[in-house]
Amino acid sequence: MTVPLAILWASCALPALSATPAAEAHKAAMVLDTHFDTPANFHRPGWDIMDRHSVEADGSQVDYPRMVEGGVDGGFFAIFTPQGARTPEGDAKARDAALLRAVEIHQMVAKHGAKFALATRAEEAAPIVAAGKKVVFISMENSQPVEADLTLMATFYTLGVRMMGPIHFMNNDLGDSSTDPKGKEWNGLSDKGKAFVAEANRLGVVLDASHASDEVLDQMIALSTTPLILSHSGLKAIFDHPRNIDDTRLKALAAKGGVIQINAFSNYMVAQPKIPERDAAMADLMKAIGASGRDMTPAQRKAFLEGRKAIDAKWPMPRANLDDFMKHMLHAIEVAGIDHVGVSGDFDGGGGIAGLEDVTDYPRITERLIAAGYSRDDVAKVWGGNALRVLKAAADARTAK
Prior knowledge:
Elements: H1 5-10, H2 21-28, E1 32-36, H3 55-58, H4 64-69, E2 74-80, H5 88-111, E3 116-118, H6 125-130, E4 134-141, H7 144-147, H8 152-158, E5 161-165, H9 191-203, E6 206-207, H10 214-223, E7 229-233, H11 247-255, E8 259-262, H12 276-289, H13 298-314, H14 322-336, E9 341-343, H15 363-371, H16 376-396
Parallel strand pairs: 1-2, 2-4, 3-4, 4-5, 5-6, 7-8, 8-9
Helix pairs in contact: 2-15, 2-16, 12-13
């Protein structure tokens, strides 16, 4: 009886796969994800990255045991701050929340220094992996924490932040979001947003245009002196969603030397019908458990997962799968070239699709790339080489003293 390759991967049978081209390519690559929202779990009571968790038990998708199983060498751990009130008080709250999240990332690395190490330069990744540790880069998703005072960008740089995205779901004082229901406010970047770009270039920080509007992306490409990254995005040609990028802009991103990291977020990959009864049931569930998604106790999270499972069973929604993901990836490679495409599951931040549920499934992407005719060197570029090149370009162009 032939055992399916996916089952072997799931059992972490790396030695048994050592002779296969896919396994060898995955093992040889620097496997990095450019957008882990995992730091949102660090303050959860009883949650430790060294324990093996599961999507079914607590909704989490990244921890040390599963990184080992999936052959994942590390990634960018995000300081995510939800967009709050655009007032002095709101900006101060966002600043403080981001500083606390940065401290939590540093605490995790310090506590588990035998298994994790902080990196601030592309050249540091390989020695960390050679030492048997996982690489922790730090990024910022939504830059409201610095919008009131751009000198704070240097503070976060000192704390290790090497990638910053200006905007999230809603417009802010830096520019327009791709998904704000109110529409455009700045027609791209604000004046402060343009200063944000210049300061990122000065510091040597990679600019991340995921979540930004098309006009913001255009202006960031034009203004930035270094390549940009889309740390977790998809392709409009495959699924027309505001969060995704069209082929013309993808070519412009590549021409600048930038990279798109294909994400695994179902809502941006397949159509989601509007089901009012489902929406009402979800609202009732959140009200019943008495907490937001980012601040649940273990008991609340368990109740949420059980409640959502029942809602999904009663009002199922279409869910993207690995085939959909590869359509985005292969199209991006065809349009932009192999030097301009990478991977992010958007794990612990809403990502996860059938066949890519957590980091243990990442070898399946390598299998698909090898099956599509890509070489071991191509796989290495997609899994981390391209992102590290962009990181190095930003650092090399740094002018801050």
